[in-house]
Amino acid sequence: MEGVLSQQQLDQVYVVLVRARNPSNIGAVARAMHDFGFRYLRVVNEYAVPFETAKSAVDASTVLAGAGVFDTVAEAVADCTVVVGTTAVGDRSLQHQLYALPEAASKMSESLADSGRVALLFGSEKTGLSNDELSHCNWLLTIPMQQHEDLRHPSMNLGQAVAVSLYELVRESRVLVGDRVPAPAAAGEMERLTTLLTEVLEKTGYTRRHPANCDDAQIRRLVLRMGLTASDAPVWMGILRQVLWKTQGPEAEGDG
Amino acid sequence: MEGVLSQQQLDQVYVVLVRARNPSNIGAVARAMHDFGFRYLRVVNEYAVPFETAKSAVDASTVLAGAGVFDTVAEAVADCTVVVGTTAVGDRSLQHQLYALPEAASKMSESLADSGRVALLFGSEKTGLSNDELSHCNWLLTIPMQQHEDLRHPSMNLGQAVAVSLYELVRESRVLVGDRVPAPAAAGEMERLTTLLTEVLEKTGYTRRHPANCDDAQIRRLVLRMGLTASDAPVWMGILRQVLWKTQGPEAEGDG
Predict the structure, then answer these.
(1) How far apart are alpha carbons A230 and A208 in whole angstroms?
(2) How many of the other CB atoms lie within 10 Å of CB of B151?
C-alpha cells in the first residue's frame, strides 16, 4: 500500500557526503534536500570541512546549520539500520547487491515504513566511494545514465545526483504499511561484531591460514551480508565472546 | 505504452534555457543532458550569452559545442511540435494546464513516440519564465517539492531542475541494471553449518552458559536468518572449523 512519506519518515533519512571537496557542491546538496523536505545532512572528512563557505547556499541554511561532521564513515552511520552506497558502477568489481534508483527507492521506503534509519552515502566528486567506504554499505544504488561511445564511465555532478535520488524517493511518496519485518541491527552494532569476528579469526589462526579472506573490508562485508536483526546481533556477539574466551587457552578456563 | 526511448527520440527533445544568467548553471545543464543522453540545447538571451565560460563544464563539451543561440523564445521553439514550460507554480495565476513531472514525462514520451519535437523551457534562475514566455507553451510541468512553513515558493537550482526533469523522462525507458541477486546457499549446506555451529557452542561452553538460546531449532533458525549466499557458506564453514580446531586445546595445535 502506498502513501505519502511523513515528515517523520523523511527525518529517518541521513544524506552522508564522504570527502566532498567543493563547498558549492555541499551547498547544492543542502538546497536539494531542502527542496524535497529532507533535513539531516552528515559530512565525513578527514580534514577541516570547507563548510562555512557552503552556508550561503540559497534556502539551505537550516539543513547546513543542523549538519553533523564526522571523522569516519563508521561513526557517521553508526545509528543507522540501513546503509546505502551510491555508485556510477564502472570498473569496480562490485561485491554488493546493486539496484537501479527506482527499485532502490522502493527498498528504502520499505525500511522507512519499518521505522528504519537510512543512510544514503555519496562519495567524493572525483573518485566516488572507495572500496573501504563501500564496505560499510548494505547494498548499492546507481542512477541509470547514458552509455557514451567514448566508453568513459559517466558520473553525475554531486548536487544533481543527490537531487535526482531524493526526487525519486519522494516521487511516489510511498509507504508500505503492515508486513512486519523484524527490526534490523544498527550499523554501529554490526561494526562491533566485525571487530569481534576479526579478533576471533586472528586468535584461532584463521587469518594466518586464509589471508585472502581477511582484509578489513571483506570481513565487514561478510558480516553485513548476514543481514542481522536487532535481536540476533547480541546473540552473535555472545557466541563470538565465548569463542574468544575459550581460545585464551587453559589458564583462563577456570573463570568461565 | 512504455518502452525504451531511442537516441533518435532523445534527439527530438530540445532543452531551452531562457535568460539563464550564470555560466556555471548553463554548464551544469549541459552536463545533466550529457549524463542522460540528450544532445540539443538552445539558449535564449537578449544580450550576449555568457556562453564561452560554460564550455569548461565536465563532459558537457559536445552539448555546448552544438548549442543554438536565439534572440527570442518564438525563434527557439519554431520547429517544435510541443512546447512545455517548467514552473515552480507560485503566485502566477496559471492560464495553462499544469502537470506534475511524472505525468508530464509520460505525455512528452507519447509525443516523442509520435515523432514530435518537444521543447522543454526553463526560465531564469531568479524569476522563472515570464507570462509572455509561458504564452509560447502548450502546457506546463512542475517538479513536486516540499512546502515549507516560511511560505516562500520553493524554486530549484537550475542544473538540478533540468537533471530531475530529464531523469524522469528517461526513467522508465532504460535497461534496468539486471538486479544481481547472488545465489543462495542450499538447505543442505545450511544444515551442515547448523551442525558445526552446534558443536562450536558446546565446545566453547556457550551452551552451558546460555542454554535458553541453544535448542536445535533455535540454532537452525539463527543460521537460516543469516540468509547466506552459496559463496559465503563455505567461508563460514571454514571459520567454524578453525574455531573447533583451536578449541581442541594445545595438544592438537601442532597439526594445524
Answers:
(1) 31
(2) 6
Residues of chain A contacting residue B37, judged by C-beta atoms under 8 Å apart: 145-146
Q: What is the DSSP string of A201-212?
A: HHHTTHHHH-GG
Please give the distance of CA B236 from its chain centroid, rounded to a whole number: 35
Task: In whole angstroms, give the CA distance from residue A25 to residue A8.
Answer: 26
Give the C-alpha separation, A11 to A7, whole Å.
6
Q: How far apart are CA A81 and CA B88, in angstroms?
A: 35
Listed in sequence order, the residues at least 6 apart from B254 whose beta carbon sits closer than 8 Å to its beta carbon are none
ipTM above 0.85, yes or no: no
C-alpha cell recorded at residue A170:
519522494
H or E, element range at B44: strand B40-44
Contacts for B218 with CB less than 8 Å, ≥ 6 apart: none
Q: Nearest-CA neighbor of A143 among A161, A158, A159?
A: A161
Residues 172-211 of B with CB under 8 A from A: 174-177, 179-182, 200-201, 203-206, 208-210
The residues near A144 (Cβ < 8 Å, ≥ 6 apart) are: A100, A101, B170, B171, B174, B175, B176, B177
Q: Can you tell me the distance from the alpha carbon of B62 to that of A152, in angstroms, rounded to the nearest whole number?
A: 14
Phi-psi region of B161 (alpha: psi -120 to 50; beta: other; left: phi over 0): alpha
Nearest Cβ partner for A99 among B34, B179, B232: B179
CB atoms within 10 A of CB A71: 11
Selection from A125, A169, A166 nearest residue A33 by Cα: A166
Taking 70 as the threshold, does the pLDDT of residue B253 lie above it?
no
Contacts across the A-B interface (CB distance below 8 Å): 175
Instruction: Return the residue matching grid coordinates 521505522.
Output: A115
**Is any Cβ of chain B less than 8 angstroms from the Cβ of A237?**
no
Q: Is the pLDDT of residue A253 over 60?
A: no
Burial of B231 (0-12, 13-18, 19+ CB in 10 A): exposed
Torsion of Cα atoms, A73 then A74 then A79 then A81, to 10°? 90
Of B31, B239, B247, the CB nearest to A246: B247
Rounded to the nearest 5 degrees, what angle is found at the Cα of A115, between the Cα atoms of A111 and A119? 60
Cβ B243–A247 below 8 Å, yes or no? Answer: yes
pTM above the 0.80 mark? no
Amino acid at position B227, single letter: G
Distance from CA of B71 to the nearest CA of A (A): 29
Selecting from A89, A159, A243 the residue whose C-beta is nearest the C-beta of B204 gives: A243
pLDDT band, residue A242 (cuts 50/70/90): very high
Does B137 contact chain A (CB < 8 Å)? no
Q: Are A157 and B226 an interchain contact pair (Cβ–Cβ within 8 Å)?
A: no
Q: Say whether pLDDT at B204 is over 90.
A: yes
Residue B60: pLDDT band (50, 70, 90) is confident
